[in-house]
Design goal:
694 residues; alpha/beta; TIM Barrel; Immunoglobulin-like; 9-stranded parallel β-sheet; 16 helices; 29% helix; disordered N terminus; binds beta-D-galactopyranose; beta-galactosidase activity; Beta-galactosidase; metal-binding; EC 3.2.1.23
Length: 694
């Protein structure tokens, strides 16, 4: 295959080299105020409906829509033949109405014509089965035919609309990896080998990193190296982890190739919608977020999650951590009600649309957007909720959408302000999560997000603000750093974490953190090798528990899922095991390190124990809540140059009183200090402009 102007390189080569260092950009202002809107798919509707759409958008205060996300096939109607009529019309209509456009490169859904002509574009699963067309993201990032067609279309789109005044943002693709996270085809195998050459240099270095002497799997030639294919067996963990990293880079390379094409024709900011949540993500977003002008997230609450507001807070805190410097980000998608991809898709309860949306804004989003504007009558997502549901403007959802629009308008001045600095951080690292969840591990069903969310929950319930940061973050600003189940840790990261107690801070490390290095090799000498010196304790043996099994603790609670035989050196036991063969042994330890403290949690603890320890940590590190609020009331503050804004979200079904003062921007009423506690209505939200800033 020869170099191609739309390809940007030889097929399968230099994935890593195609990823330049991110260029820092000043914060962007997409629209005047907080962004409000959603995915708009006018191509699904007759033209006369569009006029009503735009009228209702204006009525609701919509100022930004994501347009054309899946509109490749409806524009490029035959190979190289493009009919822009409807898109011209839609962009013009929105522009005349003063509604900004986040214009999508529609590469998430290649036309069926292209897939029929080139079935080899579709990704191959680990078992060799080629995913048939029909869904979305039916393409392999190493496939040059896909890339050529995709970039050719992106170029035509950017040429046509790059300078259009309605285009406020470029929305590249859609949820990269959400359907094509890993491809195991031969082209991917080739690209992977090139990626390995770039990462490790020589085949010898690969053999050493992966420890291929085991099972006699030493590679003598590059083409013996294959992706971790097959459904059975146990691929080498080093190979597995590098394949995950390669796959993330391969998708990032596609994003960056599209972005580069767009930027040749447009100065508008470029982003893509991430899917940041609590678990290990499909790609390593720490390497993606710096390549966006404003990082954007899609967040959907899970219907069966009893603490969905905490899941939301976790995702938002993680977005802030990924972006760094507390810069605002954007909630690109959420739902007004039922999704359609969960097992049982229930509507949201009254008040949740506003509370959830403002929950994201409180934690740094400069807007609230949804999938989608108008509910689709047909197609796979016909039962997905929308801003304008099937029942139209007489629905409760529409009333709440309009209410949200008014609130966002009232909060206009919040745009660009930053969430106040957090003094606590939790480290979330996707490669460590991939490592934890894969292969022959002492416990095969541990999920990476579990401990992350649990420790976050304990701080969230105390209204202690906490950033969820990637391993690449600077930890210097934090008084407390929590490292949950970060199985594989690169030594430079471990060194920066060990520095936390050494400079007087508090570090808490949970079980299965720092056990392996970045190549997934166990660090010998007692677990967790990366941290045992600073912890003043080490683990001799793992004791994962069977389902239903529990080991009693001397704090009155019991550990489940995971326990360990811990040996104390300089640390003291804070909690000990009182049953099983571990009885009398330490479960939670604390070590003085200069003026700092390093804690080790060797077990999966019940919430009551986590809460107690979180209390001790907050006390030691001197962490204050954002506001003194009753249980179930969430308090977060954004800070601007003149004022600060205290968001109070009442997740309970009774009115709650909070000691706070300021002007409530949502109702326009003043609540001066000295006027007694402020009432936050059941299920409601207050946003106080505080003058002066506390
Ligand atoms: C998102 C996706 C949207 C829509 C939505 C439904 O993951 O980006 O296009 O499918 O889910 O919840």
């Amino acid at each position: 295959m020869t170099a191609d102007p739309w390809y940007g390189g030889e097929p399968g080569t230099a994935v890593r080299a195609s990823i330049p260092a991110p260029v820092p950009r000043p914060p962007v202002r997409l629209v005047d105020g907080l962004a409000f809107g959603g995915d708009y798919n006018p191509e699904q509707w007759p033209r006369e409906v569009w006029d009503e759409d735009v009228r209702l958008m204006r009525e609701a205060g919509v100022n930004l829509v994501s347009l054309g996300v899946f509109a490749w096939g409806t524009v490029e109607t035959a190979d190289g033949v493009r009919d822009w009529t409807w898109l011209d019309d839609a962009i013009g209509l929105l522009h005349r109405a003063g509604i900004g456009v986040g214009l999508a490169t529609p590469t998430a859904a290649p036309p069926s014509r292209l897939l029929a002509a080139h079935p080899e574009i579709a990704p191959v699963l680990a078992d060799g089965f080629r995913e048939p067309a029909g869904g979305r993201l039916a393409w392999c990032p190493a496939n040059p035919v896909f890339r050529r067609h995709a970039l050719r279309h992106v170029e035509a789109l950017a040429e046509r609309y790059g300078r259009h005044p309605a285009v406020r943002l470029w929305h590249i693709g859609n949820e990269f990896g959400g359907g094509n996270a890993r491809c195991y085809c031969d082209l991917s195998a080739e690209a992977f080998r090139d990626w390995l050459r770039e990462r490790h240099g020589t085949l010898d270095a690969v053999n050493t990193a992966w420890g291929t002497a085991q099972w006699g799997h030493r590679f003598g030639a590059w083409d013996e190296v294959l992706p971790p294919r097959g459904r059975h067996g146990a691929p080498n963990p080093g190979l597995f982890l590098d394949y995950e990293r390669y796959s993330s880079d391969a998708l990032l390379s596609q994003y960056l190739a599209e972005k580069a094409v767009v930027e040749r024709h447009s100065d508008a900011p470029v982003t893509t919608n991430l899917m940041v949540g609590a678990g290990a993500q499909v790609v390593d977003y720490a390497t993606w977020a710096p390549h966006t002008a404003i990082a954007a997230n899609d967040h959907y609450t899970l219907v069966d999650d009893p603490r969905r507001e905490q899941d939301l807070a976790f995702a938002a805190d993680r977005m802030r951590g990924l972006v760094g410097d507390r810069r605002p980000w954007l909630l690109m998608e959420s739902s007004t009600g039922s999704p359609s991809w969960q097992p049982r898709n229930r509507a949201k309860d009254p008040g949740e649309i506003v509370r959830h949306s403002l929950g994201h804004v409180a934690r740094g989003s400069d807007g609230a957007m949804f999938f989608q504007w108008r509910a689709s009558r047909a197609g796979a997502e016909q039962f997905h909720s929308a801003m304008l549901p099937h029942s139209g403007t007489r629905s409760r959802v529409w009333r709440e959408v309009r209410e949200l629009g008014r609130h966002l308008q009232a909060l206009k001045e919040v745009q660009g302000t930053r969430v106040e600095p957090a003094r606590a951080a939790i480290v979330a690292d996707d490669p460590a999560g991939w490592a934890l969840q894969h292969g022959l591990k002492p416990h095969r069903s541990l999920r990476y997000g579990r401990e992350l969310r649990e420790w976050h929950r304990a701080l969230w319930e105390r209204n202690v603000l906490c950033d969820v940061v990637p391993a690449s973050a600077a930890f210097d600003a934090y008084d407390l750093v929590i490292v949950p189940t970060m199985l594989a840790v690169a030594e430079p990261v471990a060194a920066r974490l060990r520095a936390v107690p050494e400079r007087g801070g508090t570090l808490l490390v949970t079980y299965l953190s720092g056990v392996c290095d970045e190549d997934h090799q166990v660090i010998p000498g007692g677990f967790p090798g990366a941290f045992r010196d600073v912890l003043g304790a080490w683990t001799d043996e793992f004791y994962p528990l069977q389902a239903g099994e529990a080991v009693a603790l001397d704090d009155g609670a019991a550990a489940t899922e995971w326990t360990e035989r811990v040996v104390l050196e300089t640390a003291e036991a804070v909690v000990s095991y009182t049953s099983s063969s571990l009885a009398g042994g330490p479960a939670v330890t604390r070590n003085r390190v200069g003026d700092g403290t390093a804690w080790y949690v060797s077990a999966h603890l019940p919430s009551a124990s986590v809460d107690r320890i979180a209390g001790l940590l907050a006390e030691t590190a001197g962490l204050e809540p954002t506001a003194t609020a009753p249980p179930g009331v969430e308090a977060v503050r954004r800070v601007g140059p003149e004022h600060s804004y205290l968001f109070l979200l009442n997740h309970t079904d009774t009115d709650q009183a909070v000691d706070a003062a300021g002007r409530d921007l949502l109702t326009g009423t003043d609540h001066p200090s000295g006027a007694g506690p402020l009432t936050v209505p059941a299920g409601g939200v207050r946003v106080l402009r505080e003058t002066p800033r506390p």
